[in-house]
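Thanks for the sequence, V.! I ran diguanylate cyclase right away. Repeating your input here for the record:
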Amino acid sequence: MTARILIVDDVPANTRLLEAKLGAEYYQVSVAHDGFQALHLAASWQPDLVLLDVMMPELDGYETCRRLKEDPKTLHIPVVMITALSEPGERVRGLEVGADDFLTKPVDYDTLLARVKSLVRLKRLLDEWRMRGETARALGLTGETFSPPSVAGARALLVDDRESGLQQAQDALAREGIVSGRAGSESAALQLTAAMPFDLVVLSLSLTAEDPLRLASRLRAADETHNIPMLLIADPEQKSRILRGFDLGANDWLVRPVDENELRVRARNQIRRKFYQDRLRADLGHALEMALTDPLTGFYNQRYLMRHLRSLIGAGQPNGIAVMMIDVDNFKSVNDRWGHPVGDQALRSIAEALRRRIRVFDSIARYGGEEFVVVMPGTGPQEAAIAAERLRSAIAELPFAPEPGIAHALSVSIGVSCSNGEPVTAEQLLHAADQALYQAKRAGRNRSEIAAP
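Predicted structure:
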């Protein structure tokens, strides 16, 4: 997997070495020699990852990272900070300003490449959701951009068969308000994740009785857990297991002895990223719903209706498909006399009455201004005629007061067509129902007509 990587370091020897290592793996590399140049390149070049040295003059790595994460153009770009400073407090400081990882010089290149692959893979996934979300926002289908939320109340599952490790992790997460559950085995972890949703799994690679990597694999394979971030905790000699865990989809790791502040911040960052991904996915789902539904009535729109009807015809319905075309009688007079807000109120009342009187497997769509279509699979002409009269009479009995003390009678005309199990297209069914509707209109309105076979 190729990617664009921005190296930020004021020492040319360091940048040349990293550039050679990454170039050998076919990554596209660009170099910045100070924080200001890094900010400009990150915004204009849009790399997939930033490798950021901490110790730089004027604008150090911490401030550069903070600015990257505050800029909407660059906040989504993963940042790995690299430094000769090895104190836990320095790592926590880097994570607090938004870094995704913190590697110590001299850099272990196997570890670096594992982190690069993992973070690039995650960024590519988030980029897909983000671009779709931006398109939806441009169309006015979703709300404003997402700001980092609190993680208080998030759920974490701690998997370890050592009580001391569980308690330490639980205490650290509690300081962020993260609610944690415990599991001492693979079976217990799988039972818990099947029973309730989690926002993070903290997995010890030192389980004594089982292979924790098998659990990591199973969590990534299961539909309900494949999006949950995994944070691995390992002993210093377990480097190969850490790298294997990343191949299986782990997101982050810590080496014992665990610094509680570092665990807390890494857990918080992973959960925030999950919330961001969840929000992007929800925005897209909302955008799709908005694109396929009518905002006034909540019914499907014409685009969805045509796809659904064609799908039903393609699947074959042995008892046929019935289509009703429903038009509100004299609706223009309501808008002209009382205005469009009252007209909208009338349409919502009619829509609700129709919704309550169709079967759960029927579909209803708003076809036009005051036109609705009901699709009834597995329905013949006799059943369709009875259903049409039921809907027509319900609207005729609907109380509607456009203003206090004034009642206005609403009515609809309905045209019905049926496939009778014969080969037919969606367009033919709708056209036949439309012709039957015009018959009902010409015959005096407030009635239903069945199209000729």
